[in-house]
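Fill in residues.
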């Protein structure tokens, strides 16, 4: 693999080294942060190439995550990976239960209300602690709570359409 592959899911990057035995420090976008070490192999992007590398061990260390990678046995080897992006293939994600969705699958869906008014497209998602929120951009930006059965009535990923019970004036 030599080119940037848009189907890959970027999970973080290697930020530095930890100790002298080849462990690396990792910035993780997963929740929880240490969840990144559950995915193996990682695809490491460095110098224009993706390289597959097996994760041997990993854990949370204070405010960061550290990992031990196959074939990286000393500090010098680990330093060569500093700054490299970490990605996985989509098929490495856990299977979801019915009515569960990955944010990445919702982004880009058209959002319409029960009256058929097109609100636009899901541009991004936000986590509020209580529930996730769809950030919908169309004629204006709308923040719509992602509460299934209440605000969100239907999600049709094959049609890239989300139907909501939401007033057009909100």
């Amino acid at each position: 693999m030599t080119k940037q592959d848009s189907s890959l899911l970027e999970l973080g990057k290697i930020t530095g080294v930890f100790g002298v035995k080849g462990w690396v420090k990792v910035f993780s976008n997963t929740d929880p942060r240490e969840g990144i070490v559950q995915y193996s192999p990682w695809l490491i992007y460095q110098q224009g190439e993706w390289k597959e590398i097996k994760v041997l061990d990993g854990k949370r260390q204070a405010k960061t995550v550290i990992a031990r990678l196959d074939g990286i046995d000393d500090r010098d080897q680990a330093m060569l990976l500093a700054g490299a992006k970490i990605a996985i293939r989509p098929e490495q994600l856990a299977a979801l239960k019915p009515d569960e969705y990955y944010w990445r699958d919702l982004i880009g869906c058209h959002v319409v209300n029960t009256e058929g008014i097109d609100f636009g497209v899901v541009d991004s998602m936000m986590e509020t602690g209580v529930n996730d929120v769809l950030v919908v951009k169309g004629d204006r930006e709308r923040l719509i709570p992602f509460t299934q059965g209440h605000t969100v009535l239907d999600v049709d990923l094959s049609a890239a359409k989300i139907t909501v019970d939401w007033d057009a004036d909100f």
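The domain at 103-164 is CATH 2.30.30.240 (SH3 type barrels.).
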